Amino acid sequence: MNTILKLLLTAVAVVILAKLLPGVTVDGYLSAIIVAVVLALLRLIVKPILVILTLPITIVTLGLFLLIINAIIIFIADSFVDGFAVSGWFIAIIFSLLLSLFQSILYSFLDKK
After folding, report:
1. How far is residue 73's CA from residue 111's CA, in Å, rounded to a whole number?
2. Measured CA distances, 18 to 26, 46, 69, 90, 91 (Å)
3. Whole-structure pTM value
4. Which keywords does the record carry (predicted)?
């Protein structure tokens, strides 16, 4: 149940960010839910592989290369979901940062009982 709520909150964050950022578009709420599911799966499967493969670069940049990995994850989600589009690298990085911020704020409401 908690996972479903987190996916729905991520979809809400995607819709809000699509309205705030000029280079991000989402066709509707169903597309936002699909984006949330795809992002969760990509973060679960692809991100650890990318982190291991780029570990030397990540160490040299003191972890800042993880922003590029997050942007790559956003672009992969862009290619998988038809109703979701990100216009460039800078927008993908900003989208990733703001999505993480919104998720941490929204998820903090779930932990309180």
Report:
1. 26
2. 6, 24, 20, 14, 11
3. 0.89
4. Membrane, Transmembrane, Transmembrane helix
